[in-house]
């Protein structure tokens, strides 16, 4: 399975701080925002990832992440000239996906939780075994700003409505989706919405009409953090700082995840830590590597 990170858009809700830099390159506490969705794909065991951004910002992502070889991965980059909707990611990434299954994650979405790796592995396994698509449902106080899952009395999914005025449930669909190899063909049939965009909800509803959409509900042990506003970014940074300082491990540390998932060895992790100099982040990588060498 391959992954796509959609990190385009103009980030107008964050102006003026995003007038000169991509939103997903802004810091969330001690690391760039894009590290968080990348870490989600890595936790799902995905080693080949396409990063889609604007023509202006692609070079910055390439400079930050490189070709992925230092992490035991393969990273590629593609441009989205204008924000035409999330489903356009499949047209842009068609050659990269080459008809295989994929996970699509939005570049400004942050997930954290003790069971996150298990939830991701289950979703990936289901798509690879059975085909179809898997999306997630996360309980929110006000779901009107999101795609919302509608259930019947038996808790079976009967619809997903984009930004409804009167939501039929409290479960929003976060920006993380798993699809089989037919996603590009399904997306190619999507018509622009009233907003003039190719909506990812249209792709999901197409799978639903065919009886091939599953929804995994995220419970209380999971955190889905909004970074679309300055307040959201501040709260996300405070969350990361609190977890890291109190529990002693780093959230979305892509180098550590690469090591723990077996993409790289302890020696490579040690080199990555030393390359960061006398930073807390570098010292953390060194401590994880040395702990692994002792085991």
TrEMBL record:
Required cofactor names: Mg(2+)
Catalyzed chemical reaction(s): dTTP + alpha-D-glucose 1-phosphate + H(+) = dTDP-alpha-D-glucose + diphosphate
GO BP field: hexose metabolic process; polysaccharide biosynthetic process
Keyword Phosphoprotein: no
Gene Ontology molecular function terms on file: glucose-1-phosphate thymidylyltransferase activity; metal ion binding
Keywords for this protein: Magnesium, Metal-binding, Nucleotidyltransferase, Transferase
Cited Gene3D superfamilies: Spore Coat Polysaccharide Biosynthesis Protein SpsA, Chain A (3.90.550.10)
Enzyme Commission number, as recorded: 2.7.7.24
A Pfam family it matches: NTP_transferase
All copies of domain Nucleotidyl transferase, residue ranges: 2-241
InterPro entries: G1P_thy_trans_s (IPR005907), NTP_transferase_dom (IPR005835), Nucleotide-diphossugar_trans (IPR029044)
Function: Catalyzes the formation of dTDP-glucose, from dTTP and glucose 1-phosphate, as well as its pyrophosphorolysis.
Protein family according to the UniProt entry: Belongs to the glucose-1-phosphate thymidylyltransferase family.
NCBIfam families (alphabetical): rmlA
Protein name (record): Glucose-1-phosphate thymidylyltransferase
Organism: Rubneribacter badeniensis
